[in-house]
Every structure is written in C-alpha cells, then in structure tokens.
Specification:
With about 220 residues, this protein is of the alpha+beta class. The chain is about 45% helix and about 15% strand. It is built from 9 helices and 8 strands.
Length: about 220
C-alpha cells in the first residue's frame, strides 16, 4: 500500500491570501513597511525623533524597503547616527525617470540653506540647533548690494525663501517662541564638493557686485 502524499500548495496559498490587505493584493511587504515606503517616497524624510514608529519599521525592514525603492529608480539615504532617512533619484545615465521632485532654488534660497547648514555643523552630531527668523534675515541682508534701494522687494524674496524652508520641513517649529529647529537632514543633502562650488560662485558674484542680478534666477 503506497504512502499517502500531501501538498502544501493550498496551505501556503491560503496563508498568503490571509496576509493580503485586499483580495487582489500581491505585495510582499507588511502593511507597516508599505506605509513607510509611501512616506519615504512622498518625503521629505523620515526622522527617528519625529516619526518614531516609522523609524523602527524602517530599521527592521531596511533591505526589503531598499529593494522596493531600487525598483522605482530610487536610492535610500539612511543615517542612523543623525536619525534621518530620505530617498533621492538614482544616479543613472540620461533617460532614467525622475521619480521624486527636486526643489528649485533661487539664489537666496541657496544662501539661506548654506547658512542653516553652517549653523547645524557648528553643533555636535547629537545636538539640536535652533535659529531665529531675525538672525537668518540679518545674515542674508549681506547679500543685498549696497547700491540696491529696493529693500521691500529684497525682504519679500527672503520671506519667500523662509516660507520654502518651513514648507519642506528644513526648518521645524519648536516649543520655544520665535525659535526654529534646523533639520538634521541638511547635514546630508549637500556634498562637500557642492558646497565648495556654490561658495566659490558666491564669492565670484560678490567680487563683481552681481547679487541683485541673480536673486530671482533659479538654480537646479
């Protein structure tokens, strides 16, 4: 008499089906990991401090999430020391799709970002850094040509740059009145080469007194 044979195919199919989030679901990630995947793609970033549950899931399922992002032509930038993670378009030859949007920066946007990054780097890796609106505006005032008389127009452009920093969570509100936290992501999104290139260009413009001529131009 032959031994009875069994197949686990039906059992596995039932188990997989029970784990699905909807009847036609063929995904392999857990519901929690899928939510983190969406959060990373929507941006601007995931923070250990501000998104503690998402951060825990991210560290638990990093390999699978990195693989799913690669399927979408995206790189995961993860810094456990800083407690931040974000995605960027993969560095490929021309023709690769640009999945996540880039933020166009005016001259003053870039100047403000550089100042905020400098203030952040003055602290230790674990120290939170706060700035006030007035001190940032005072610093940017040095970029206004001494010959410019359009003070109101310049202030409007600086205010627009400030609003953009808040909108993209590069500046974060705090419990301290009139103080804003500089996002730790600014330690990561610029390479030293990019910083040097921008600062060299600013020095060149300063020598030529061209600041007012480029305030409204957009750089990628």
């Amino acid at each position: 008499m032959s031994e009875p044979t069994f197949t686990t195919a039906g059992i596995e199919d039932t188990a997989n089906r029970d784990a699905r989030l909807w009847p036609e679901d063929t995904g392999e990630l857990s519901a929690a990991s899928r939510k983190v995947l969406v959060q990373l793609v929507k941006g601007p970033y995931v923070s250990a401090e501000r998104h503690s549950e998402a951060w825990r899931v991210l560290l638990t399922d990093t390999t699978a999430l990195r693989s799913r992002l690669a399927d979408m032509f995206l790189d995961l930038v993860l810094d456990e020391t800083q407690g931040v993670a974000f995605v960027r378009n993969a560095s490929l030859e021309a023709g690769a799709p640009q999945v996540v949007r880039t933020m166009a920066l005016t001259f003053l946007d870039t100047a403000m970002l550089l100042y905020l990054r400098r203030e952040l780097l003055r602290g230790s890796n674990t120290q939170r850094v706060f700035v006030g609106r007035d001190e940032v505006f005072d610093h940017l005032n040095s970029y206004r040509s001494a010959e410019s008389t359009d003070e109101a127009g310049f202030l409007k452009r600086v205010s627009s740059a400030w609003t953009k920093m808040l909108k993209h969570s590069l500046l974060l509100s705090s419990s301290v009145p009139d103080r804003f936290e500089v996002s730790p992501i600014l330690r990561l999104i610029f390479s030293p080469e990019q910083i040097r290139a921008v600062e060299d260009e600013y020095r060149r413009l300063a020598r030529q007194d061209k600041f007012d001529d480029v305030e409204t131009e957009e750089d990628q």
